[in-house]
Design brief:
It is a single chain. By secondary structure, the chain is α+β, with helices and mostly antiparallel strands. It folds into 2 domains: 74 residues, Phosphorylase Kinase, domain 1, CATH 3.30.200.20; 114 residues, Transferase(Phosphotransferase) domain 1 (Transferase(Phosphotransferase), domain 1), CATH 1.10.510.10. Helix content is 45%, strand content 21%. The protein contains 5 helices and 10 strands, in the order βββαβββαββββααα. The strands form 3 sheets. A 5-stranded antiparallel sheet has the order 1-2-3-5-4, covered by helices on one side. A 3-stranded antiparallel sheet has the order 6-8-9. It has a two-stranded antiparallel ribbon with strand order 7-10. Helix 2 runs parallel beside helix 4 and helix 3 runs antiparallel to helix 4. It is globular. The termini are far apart.
Length: 195
C-alpha cells in the first residue's frame, strides 16, 4: 500500500489500482466528537459517491465504505490533473457542465479546484467529495461555483477570464433556467466587499 497524498482531512493510499481514503484523527478535538465527525463525513462521502455512480457521473466508483474504520475504497482514476493540462481552456466548458449536473442533483462539492479534476480518455472526472454535501439551496450552489471561480483565478490567472466564461456557458447548458447564477453575482459582491 502506497501513500500518494495527505491532506488536512485524510490520507490517500493506492493499492492494487484501488484508492483507500482514511480519515485522520484530529488531536485538538475531543476524542468522542472527533470519532463521530469522522464517521459522519465518511458515511456522507460514501453516499455521495453511491449517488453519483447511480447517475453514471464521471467520478470514482465506490467499492466499499466502513464508517467504523473511517475508510472508503474507490476506483483509482488514472489520468492527468486538469491543473497540469496544457489544454485546460478546452476542458473549461465541460467543467461547468459537470458542476451544473452536480447542482441539478443537489450535490455540493465544496472543494472545486482544477486539482480535484482528472482527465481520463479525454474526459473530465471530478474527484474528492470529502467536503461534499446535499443541498437544494441556491446559496450553497452559488458558493460552490464561487470557489471554482477563485481557484481558477489563483491557479490560472493568465487564462482565468476565458475559462470562467466557458465554465458558466457549460453550467447553463445543464441548468438553463437556473437562479444559481443570479445568486452567484450576490456572493461575488459580498466577496468584493470583504477586501
Amino acid at each position: 500500500m502506497q501513500l500518494i497524498s495527505q491532506g488536512a482531512e485524510a490520507k490517500i493510499f493506492l493499492k492494487d489500482n484501488i484508492i483507500i481514503k482514511e480519515r485522520i484523527s484530529k488531536k485538538y478535538r475531543v476524542q468522542e466528537l472527533d470519532e463521530e465527525l469522522r464517521k459522519f463525513r465518511t458515511r456522507r462521502e460514501g453516499k455521495i459517491l453511491e449517488r453519483l455512480q447511480q447517475q453514471n457521473f464521471p467520478s470514482p466508483k465506490l467499492i466499499s465504505m466502513c464508517d467504523k474504520t473511517m475508510k472508503i475504497e474507490m476506483e483509482f482514476i488514472k489520468g492527468e490533473l486538469v491543473k497540469d493540462s496544457p489544454n485546460i481552456k478546452s476542458f473549461s466548458k465541460e467543467m461547468g457542465r459537470l458542476v451544473g449536473l452536480l447542482h441539478k442533483n443537489n450535490i455540493i462539492h465544496y472543494d472545486l479546484t482544477t486539482s480535484n479534476m482528472i482527465v481520463r480518455d479525454g474526459k473530465v472526472n471530478i474527484i474528492d467529495f470529502g467536503l461534499g454535501f446535499i443541498s437544494e439551496k441556491d446559496e450553497d450552489k452559488a458558493v460552490d461555483l464561487h470557489l471554482l471561480d477563485r481557484a481558477l483565478y489563483s491557479k490560472h490567472p493568465e487564462i482565468y477570464e476565458f475559462c470562467m466564461n466557458e465554465v458558466l456557458i457549460g453550467y447553463k447548458e445543464t441548468n438553463p433556467n437556473n437562479t444559481v447564477l443570479e445568486r452567484l453575482k450576490r456572493v461575488e459582491l459580498r466577496g468584493r466587499n470583504k477586501k
